[in-house]
Amino acid sequence: MLNIYGLTLIGVGLMAGLFTRVSLIGGMVLLAFYYLSHPPLPLLSYSMPSEGSYLIVNKTLIELFSMAVLLVFPTWHRIGIDRLLKIS
Amino acid sequence: MGMKDDKNKNTDKGDQKAIGPKVKMDRRDVLKGIATLPIFGAFAYSYYKRRSHEHLLKSNLRRGIGLSYDAPAPAYPSVARDNQIRLGIIGCGIRGTQLLRAAGFAHPAWMEEVKANAAVNRHDKRYEEYLAQEDLNVVITGVCDVFDVHAGTAMEAAVNSQKEGSSRSSVTQPKRYRHYQELIAADDVDAVIIATPDHWHGPMTIEAARHGKHVYVEKPLTWTVEETYEVRKVIKDSGVIFQLGHQGRQTESYIKAREAVEAGLLGNVSLIEVCTNRNDPNGAWVYPIHPDANPNTIDWKQFIGPAPWHDFSLERFFRWRCWWDYSTGLNGDLLTHEYDAVNQIMKVGIPHSAMSSGGIYFYKDGRTVPDTLQVAYEFPKKDLTMLYSATLSSGKYRPKLFMGHDACMEVSDRLVVTAEEQSTRYKNKIISGEIDPRYPIYNYTPGKKDVDAVTSATEQYFASRGLLYSYRDGKRVDTTYLHIAEWLDCIRSGQQPSCDIDQAFEEAMTAHMATISYHEKRMVFWDEDKELITL
């Protein structure tokens, strides 16, 4: 449940540019969890069918890095509700 | 969503007014601040469009196919189980124990085992499912087995009344019979379950029917061609209720497959491919030998019965399926299941010809029956060929495939129909894009009531497990229980069960044709008028 609400709130936040920094950090934490729940270690295979568990070319990891880029090069004080709220 | 956006805008404006005097906020700030909100509108609009498009496709497809996603109607009306039926069981080995359980008599040790297992593994539903079986109002009054240990376990199972929530008020102590003829002749036995080696199926069925006892016999119906005629005659003359143990008759996906064929979804089916793939000693009939088995605990002479004499052998007793002397090999054990499913779905009847080949290629343990076998059956009147392909030393899963000109149907515990790209029937729909030959046009997963164009990998993974089960009202049920229950209900109502003697006759002759062809190394034919297998 926490996952569902967390994901929804993060998604809304990122789309609206609202509390962007918190949403980005929250999103990165969740993605890190997803990545670590199927750690791409040798001799470890997960019993559920999944899209695969790759070391680097992994969509979860790539998404996580993209969010890190957004965090480092912030735009929310330019466009988004954060501008109205004067969050920078 | 649009309204919500407006609301947000209003609130934003309100905020702006409230904080207006303190913070300077110009028009540019507001515009840039709310610039992201239209994204929600665009997102909601495209989501709605996509959903309604998918919905339209699905409902068009659903109407166009003409085959419902409802669970099949019950094969027979439900019967009041007021009068108690007294059962005798002959043959209490691996299958006999399972049949007893299906009738509501699980062995206490098994109950404890599955109960303990369910406590640590919540995916193990065996205990729960056993408890969910309806009380069939039967008692076991007679038990017969030539091996003392097996007879003893069956006796323990027969008095087991620990089924929680059971309405069984009294426990009947069954009598152990040393000889099957005594059990059949007993006055307190109304019906018998026969789960002996193949060479005994025919003689015991005949004996039971002559005594007016209803019969549930394991497949195959018979061990020789000759006794098949006699079994059919005696069953018909006596009027007893007969059921052959092909529990696949109860599998929901098979029943839906029959509906799919009747609805003409497949077009002309020219080829049916059915298979057996096993890759473990147990699957190859190398069953464990009981430590207490010896000439004193086994009535060897009775075991041999109509079979050619052989000196006492524990291997032959426990692994009897490996010898033609007592068994019908892959043909009787596993081909019959596949054939019966095809006969249930397509009503093919006895084939015009059979040609089989194979050999003992892996289990060179002294067996006489092949471990690898292929049979080609021709049904010229139905314009189709049925191929059976089996190996006991490779486990690669192959579904039952019904290959039609218009669509191909895969039958397992699920049912998947995929249109053929060159189909005549679906030509216009394929051109219009309503049907995509890459995806199933009909995908029936029992217990699931919706159109399911592409099931997720996770669901497929779980659905492909456990062919032993069917579904009723969305609940998983043991097919053997359903099959036994159908037989008992038919005894009460006087109706014919789904795998009656006519179906059984067709099953037996079809299997015998494959066996004769294997031995003779040539094609054998079925003379429909004379009802004879000819070379």
Automatic annotation (TrEMBL), chain B:
Q: Where is this region: Disordered?
A: 1-20
- Domain spans labelled Gfo/Idh/MocA-like oxidoreductase N-terminal: 85-246
Q: Name one Pfam family in it.
A: GFO_IDH_MocA
The membrane-spanning stretches of this chain are 30-48
For this UniProt record, give its keywords in alphabetical order, as a comma-separated list: Membrane, Transmembrane, Transmembrane helix
Query: Boundaries of each Gfo/Idh/MocA-like oxidoreductase bacterial type C-terminal domain copy?
Result: 284-346
User: Does this UniProt record's set of keywords contain Transmembrane helix?
Assistant: yes
Listed Basic and acidic residues bias regions: 1-16
Q: Which Gene3D superfamilies match?
A: Dihydrodipicolinate Reductase, domain 2, NAD(P)-binding Rossmann-like Domain
In alphabetical order, the GO MF annotations are: nucleotide binding
Which protein is depicted?
Myo-inositol 2-dehydrogenase
Source organism per UniProt? Geofilum rubicundum JCM 15548
